[in-house]
């Protein structure tokens, strides 16, 4: 069952949650009333029908049911009063009107294509909005917002790692390094991101950068976590691939380097 939507949104209507919330309609920006921001964000992130009682309970958890329902009605009224009539509602539920785009959902779709190895040629770029996905709705500490922020952040980090790998495959090494560094800067202790950075440097033949990055991460992990990087990470950094010998710190390198096939 879906909410009956007899008034589809105007073409070009987008809900912006990165650096928002705000709404654009055919390029014109409309500010969302303060008392309606959480309602709009909550509904936009659900991608479908939301029970009114559930929404009211999540958005006003300290209120009783009657007060929470009243707050929800007020938030809807303020939203429509600001010229943002993009939430369809009936007695039981809410959802965005058909045709409304959400920037977060667009970024998550981009991320999914990369992660599933279904990226289009136009996906192999890192736009500013996609970096914004690493910090969705900053300063919002509602339980649902914290969970959504971490969910989106994890998806975007995986997408950045996949994007760097895809850029290496097509020989765009400089961009691959930049994307990997974006992931590392977002989460310096994330070993998978650090490994992707090593692979991007190695693909370009910059083994000095590989080892420098490895040593920097090793010191960070020891200082912050009291552990060393994994053995596979260190093995890669010290020459297990791309025709370089395996060398672990403290060992003498062999006199000649064995060949390791990429296949």
From TrEMBL:
Transmembrane regions listed in the UniProt entry: none
InterPro entries: AfsR-DnrI-RedD_regulator, BTAD, TPR-like_helical_dom_sf, WH-like_DNA-bd_sf
Gene3D superfamilies documented for this protein: Tetratricopeptide repeat domain, Winged helix-like DNA-binding domain superfamily/Winged helix DNA-binding domain
Domain Bacterial transcriptional activator: from-to ranges: 102-237
Region (Disordered) location: 244-263
Origin: domain of life: Bacteria
Protein name, UniProt field: SARP family transcriptional regulator
Organism of provenance: Nocardioides jejuensis
């Amino acid at each position: 069952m879906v909410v009956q939507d007899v008034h589809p949104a105007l073409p070009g209507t987008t809900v912006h949650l990165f650096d928002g919330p705000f709404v654009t309609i055919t390029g014109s920006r409309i500010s969302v009333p303060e008392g309606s921001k959480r309602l709009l964000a909550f509904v936009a992130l659900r991608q479908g029908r939301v029970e009114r009682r559930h929404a009211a309970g999540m958005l006003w958890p300290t209120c009783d049911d009657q007060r929470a329902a009243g707050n929800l009605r007020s938030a809807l009224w303020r939203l429509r009063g600001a010229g943002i009539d993009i939430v369809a509602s009936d007695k039981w539920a809410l959802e965005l009107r058909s045709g409304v785009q959400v920037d977060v959902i667009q970024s998550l779709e981009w991320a999914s294509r990369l992660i599933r190895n279904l990226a289009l040629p136009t996906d192999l770029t890192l736009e500013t909005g996609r970096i914004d996905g690493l910090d969705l709705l900053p300063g919002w500490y509602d339980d649902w917002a914290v969970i959504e922020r971490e969910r989106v952040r994890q998806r975007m980090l995986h997408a950045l790692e996949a994007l760097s790998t895809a850029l290496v495959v097509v020989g765009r090494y400089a961009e691959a390094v930049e994307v990997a560094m974006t992931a590392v800067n977002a989460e310096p202790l994330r070993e998978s991101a650090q490994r992707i950075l090593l692979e991007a440097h190695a693909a370009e033949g910059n083994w000095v950068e590989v080892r420098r990055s490895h040593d920097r991460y090793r010191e960070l992990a020891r200082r912050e976590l009291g552990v060393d990087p994994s053995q596979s990470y260190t093995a890669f950094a010290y020459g297990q691939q791309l025709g370089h010998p395996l060398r672990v710190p403290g060992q003498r390198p062999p006199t000649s380097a064995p060949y390791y096939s990429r296949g």
